[in-house]
Amino acid sequence: MAKAGVTRTSLLVLLVVLFVKFCASDTGILNRKAAAGGRAVSEDGRYVIVFHAGGVFTMVHVFRFDENANLLKINGSLEVFHQAQKTISSYAEDPAAILSFVAPLLEKAIYAVPTNLQPETPVIFGAYDELYLLGEEKYEKILDVVRGLFSESPLLYKAEWVNILPAATQGAYLWESINYLMGNVGGDYSKTVAVLNQESASVQMAYAVSAKAAANAPKFPGGEEYITAHHIQSNNYYLYSHGYFPFGAYSVRTAILKYTNDSYTYCVTNGYNVQYNYYGEMYNVRAAPSGSSYEKCRANVLQALHLDATCYVENCTFDGAWNGGGGAGLEKIYLTNGFQNTGADVGITTHSKPSTDLRLLEYEKFAKVACGASTFEDAHNLFPSVPLFDLPYLCMDLVYVYTVLVDGFGIDPTKLVTAADSVPYGDSSMRIQWALGLALELISSNHTKMQDITNVFAPSRTFVQIV
Ligand SMILES: *[C@@H]1O[C@H](CO)[C@@H](O)[C@H](O)[C@H]1NC(C)=O
Ligand SMILES: *[C@@H]1O[C@H](CO)[C@@H](O)[C@H](O)[C@H]1NC(C)=O
Ligand SMILES: *[C@@H]1O[C@H](CO)[C@@H](O)[C@H](O)[C@H]1NC(C)=O
Ligand SMILES: *[C@@H]1O[C@H](CO)[C@@H](O)[C@H](O)[C@H]1NC(C)=O
């Protein structure tokens, strides 16, 4: 009973929905003397421009900070934000065509920055990690088009500032954004909140650990760094962060469907029968004749999490990843993006206020209702807010959210956690977006020259000492 338009869903199209966040921000080098044009720099502040190229939207943020990395308004708002409903990954065969939407976004961002400050305003372009699936040759061609455009702009630009943002780094910058906006930065790491984020291709966990825990962190085969050092305003934090691929809202469907490619799945609505195309890989989606089942779907999801994967250290989450050892930085948990959006679709959370406190048991409760729906129409009547192209997968999606958080990350299902879209800030509120964290870190850098900052996309484990 696949509905028209639902068959042969291409992930390239579907992935888009979750990518509504971004941020951008400013640059560094504030001269104390009056800048060209006669305006004192301290009054103008420092600007940072951050592009977030996502799976549905390409977005640009302009942030402005004072000398102490406090956000300043630009023209009355906390950021200048523009977006185009285009994803760069659709242009693998004709990369130059991305200029039709990236160039106008750049123009709008430049317009927000006073002319005299443009040469010291960094412009960063972070693309979503799913771009990796195109292969290096293709995604580098796309990024090169951006590099060409930026190099001709009046802004401060470096080729390595245009790149794919790895999931773990994205998690760390989200952590910075939330904790900065909440006013937690400046206090002890134990006063900060942890972030669990779901994107279309990955899920991420980020939280602060003590300096001692950071120093004692285990070494991993392949040299993967789970702990990185971050300097925000004048404070140092060690962050555990890790990204799990393909465990995002859309990619995980393939990880689950893989096990039932030659048989039936108990995770989709009764009668559903399509092929799911994910970057050229085909997955058969055939509903079991008896319809969806919470218990049977959950068994399949548990299998996909690889809970018994080889764990090189104590304390693994799932898929063989280290959990960071836990601690005070993991006490308060914020759920963002897909986790929050899936909740809002079924009424566990809401977009009408910045955040909702809930227990993960709620996801389980609604998963049982969704898996119990006997037809597509039933499911639609029960959950009218769920987009029609996601509805056949609602049982799977809710079972997955519950299972990855409880069995994967090990969160007690009765613990109170917070799902959030935004954080109240001053007289307004700011959407939670990694771009702000990236901008903050650039602004807070010790480097006397912005141009010296190279590790924007892969923060290191130690703090940089500038001599
Ligand atoms: C400031 O806002 C006004 C009114 O919305 C707009 O016309 C103007 O272009 C904005 N200026 C900048 C620099 O963005
Ligand atoms: C699923 O089965 C189809 C044949 O029905 C095959 O073409 C496809 O490659 C299989 N997909 C995976 C991921 O195994
Ligand atoms: C594992 O967890 C225990 C208890 O939280 C902790 O004492 C230990 O340091 C952790 N080890 C690693 C490698 O995370
Ligand atoms: C900046 O310098 C201070 C003082 O030397 C140091 O404590 C801090 O770790 C440095 N921050 C970074 C990001 O290197």
From TrEMBL:
The keyword Signal applies. One of its GO terms (molecular function) is nucleoside diphosphate phosphatase activity. Pfam families: GDA1_CD39 (PF01150). GO terms for cellular component: membrane. One of its GO terms (biological process) is nucleoside diphosphate catabolic process. InterPro entries: GDA1_CD39_NTPase. Residues 1-25 form the signal peptide. Coiled coil: none annotated. Keywords: Hydrolase, Signal. Belongs to the GDA1/CD39 NTPase family. This is Ectonucleoside triphosphate diphosphohydrolase 5.
